[in-house]
Amino acid sequence: MTVSVFPPEARLFDVATIREIEARALAVQTGLTLMQKAGLATAEIAIRLCNRQDSHVLVLAGPGNNGGDAYEAACLLAERGYHVCIINCGKAEHYSTDALSALRKAQNLGLSFITVDDLLSGLTQQWGVIIDGLFGIGLKRPPEGSIARLIAYINRLSVKSAIPVLAIDVPSGLNADSGQPVSPEKLAIEASHTVTFIADKPGLHTGAGKDFAGQVLPELLGIPLDLYPPCQMHLNQQSSLPGHLLRRKHDSHKGSFGDVSVLGGATGMAGAAILAARAAQLAGVGRIYCGMLAQGPGYDSLHPELMFRKADDLELGIAAVVIGPGLGQSKSAHDLLNKAIHRAKTLVIDADALNLLAMDRDLQTRLSERSDASVLTPHPLEAARLLKLSVSDVQGNRLSATRELASRFKATVILKGSGSVICDPAGQLLINDSGNPALASGGTGDVLAGVIAALLAQSCNGLDAARLATWAHGHAADQLLIKGIGPLGLTASELLPEIRTILNQLARH
């Protein structure tokens, strides 16, 4: 397998590290200040979003450097002929030197300053774009009072009148690390676009972040790359995936591409195991066995290539094993999981197998002692059970929760959800950038588990199998959405041919 090469724009840094990079950059900056560069980048994007120059631009400027960026952008837009109105939500005595200079420049240019009450009382303008510079990455407290009312009003106005909203650095009210609003009421600016500075932030891509950030546009502000520390967190995106799935030699046979065994299919739940097996088939594995706990079908009429066995009859030491789809939580299921942990060559643990694992500390210990690759695919509730936390704790700390699971079980872990988080045992984190709400339906997790196992069987390591499968799985849903299939009513089975197409495209590059 090739080593991933991530472009600088794919790197993700937490707020503490961003602060360190910013301090280094400020110490060596020449020419334009970082704030001036941020204002210029904001203004240029706002111009692209504003379809008419005679439209008014509404700029919300807060009390910190985020407000300074907004003033710089406002001045540039006014100089280019736009009608700019500013709501100043900060006090001059609290501004940094650069932010105060930007405010004074806006005042000296004679830009129009209005109040929150002016806007809320029904000020009518044809807003071409709204720029959110209220709060940046340092927000710790929920928005309150008039600011909270302003944010709620902007969210309603932008939807009602189809006005693009450009957030500066991070949508105001959103935690840039966790991807969750700071407010218990989930109040934050719902941006259509976010221009984010110095480096991209994880909270813009996971949890609720995508719903608030919209399209994310990283701007590094010309900071030299040698001022950045080594990065342990990246976006999992298409640009770094080619080369991880090998082209097939002409001199091949079905044994060249490995075996997958799917263990599950308790009474009434055979469909989950069959979905995982079909996914493995279309993801390119050589042979697939369905090991069913209950009496399984004689064959799959849609994919008669699948071979059905009793679960206890399968030899697990030669295949990539998926355990969990439709497994149930009986004693037989528990014993089968114990057997798989001991014997499987490579192992994908999903669904009911994760719940069994959460209830048995001995199984957890045995899993952590495995030497071969293991991949766990929990959704937030399953992760919460494994970590003995609440779902809100997991969702509020998706990165650390995934890293903790990967470290504890010496496994690659995929915490599913909006912006699925992937982590290997060494702590390397990836946030997946594909997918949409169409995946929120029964069976899609079974499909993902089957694709991961197929890639493991084709000699991918745990991290590569996880990241390839997760991206292809999400991208398949994205492609179907483009074709008008979903997000309502998309079924897991519809993902399968799309995933096959995507994996073949990746293998050709």
Describe this entry's structure for a reader.
There is one protein chain. The chain is an alpha/beta fold. The chain folds into two domains: 8-231, 3-Layer(aba) Sandwich (Rossmann fold); 239-507, 3-Layer(aba) Sandwich (UDP-N-acetylmuramoyl-L-alanine:D-glutamate ligase). The chain contains 17 helices and 17 strands. A ten-stranded mixed beta sheet has the order 8-17-16-15-14-13-12-9-10-11, sandwiched between helices. A seven-stranded parallel beta sheet has the order 3-2-1-4-5-6-7. Helix 8 packs parallel to helix 17 (492-507). The longest helix has 21 residues, at 462-482.
CATH topology of the largest domain: UDP-N-acetylmuramoyl-L-alanine:D-glutamate ligase
**Helicity level:** 25-40%
Measured distance between first and last alpha carbons: 13 Å
Strand order across the biggest sheet?
Answer: 8-17-16-15-14-13-12-9-10-11
What is the average per-residue confidence, as pLDDT, rounded to a whole number?
94
Shape: elongated
Tell me the structural class: alpha/beta
CATH superfamily of the largest domain: Ribokinase
Spans of at least 5 consecutive residues whose pLDDT stays below 50 are none
Radius of gyration: 26 Å
